[in-house]
TrEMBL record:
Species annotation: Roseburia inulinivorans
Family: Belongs to the 'phage' integrase family.
Gene Ontology biological process terms from the UniProt entry: DNA integration; DNA recombination
Source taxon at top rank: Bacteria
Gene Ontology MF terms: DNA binding
Keyword terms, alphabetized: DNA integration, DNA recombination, DNA-binding
Protein known as: Integrase
Amino acid sequence: MARRKKHQKLPNGFGSIKYLGKGRYKPYGVYPPVTEYTSKGPVTPKALAYVETWDEGYEILAARKLENEGKIKIQNGVYIDRTPTFKEVYEDFYKEKYRNELREGKKKTSSMSSTQVAFKNSSALHDIQFGQIKYKDLQDVLNACPLKHSSLELIVSLMHQMYKYAIKYDIVDKDYSSALFIPIPDDDESGVPFTDEELKILWKNKDDFVVQMLLIMCYSGYRIKAFTNIETNLDGKYFKGGVKTKASKERIVPIHSCIFDMVKARYNGKNLLGCSVRDFRNKMYNTLSSLGIANAATGARHTPHDCRHTFSALCERYEVNENDRKRMMGHSFKSDITNAKYSHRTIEELREQIEKIKTPFII
């Protein structure tokens, strides 16, 4: 095995160049001289840059020394800043995030696909050095993106994760993604509940694997994506978790007695959907079409989110406590501090409320 070249010792006060190990596109970190000390020893300063070779690092430190001596003036961002590009950071981030899947040669997961799509939709940033990207550059990507709210959510999530990664590895020291916002309304919240007649048709076909999942969603209020990772506790007869908001991710929803046997029969310790979200959507559309209820009364095609609207409508019809409906749907109490901070409901109290929903269509 070839040994790395031994380099000259750098003079005192010059700075340092550290080899950070294999597997990095730019394995050398370039650091200014140490100026801070604690009882535990010297504090390593923030890196000036990450480079491919030791010689590049030496050039940066030499130029920095000349500038400090007033002999040259370096235009910031042109010479000194050699942070990797957005694309290079993404590639290293992706390898780390999905290292197990990549090492084991597993089939591409929906999470991996979503990450790749979000990166593709951020193409305006690909060739910009990560250290040169500012808040406006990130927000401009969102403002210019013509896609739906859900696609923008994936972009924002990727940016959050990449900045967390970049800060961890001292590529940058500030998270410009923290203040990002999605500039369009959340179209995912729109939907039409299933009518009584449509619910009756679903219950008549409750032995169908896809229909079972639709009924589980209609009587639990969860978004379709949540079923890929929520906790399903069969002993306690409840779901726990969710997606999107903090309130949603922390909620507990008792499993309604009318769907418990379905949940128990299909639960294998993993994804209740039994497939990816995309595949389930396609199966749902085909199934509803074969049952003659593909479209709502409005003419719009029924979507998985209509199940969430159905749950909300059922709660309202059977007079489920309004605050408990919010809790089970993962809605925040916003400015209602009393309910947000001081109201605590047990699983059995929530179960009493959800069981108010009657199921007259069960045959």
